[in-house]
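Researcher: I'd like a candidate sequence for this fold, 83 residues long. If you have to choose between options at a position, lean toward the conservative one.
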């Protein structure tokens, strides 16, 4: 049998390097900033770096956050209507 993954609407913001407030607003205390290193995201699988250009994604239902690489994001997510 074949199965299709159910659509999941998420909140997301792209890390540009100058939009700390947006990243903090989405990720809250799950995003850690160092003095001279990329931000790190506390995910269900541990700490993951948030590289410039990557997207920070949050499931509004569970609150879980994770980074998605810039090249992968448009292949996985598309804009959704605001609820």
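Model: Candidate sequence:
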């Amino acid at each position: 049998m074949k199965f299709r993954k159910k659509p999941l609407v998420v909140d997301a913001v792209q890390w540009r390097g100058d939009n700390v407030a947006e990243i903090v607003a989405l990720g809250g205390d799950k995003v850690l900033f160092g003095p001279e290193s990329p931000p790190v995201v506390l995910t269900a699988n541990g700490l993951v770096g948030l590289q410039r250009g990557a997207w920070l994604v949050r499931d509004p239902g569970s609150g879980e956050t994770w980074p998605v690489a810039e090249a992968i994001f448009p292949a996985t997510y598309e804009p959704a209507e605001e609820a």
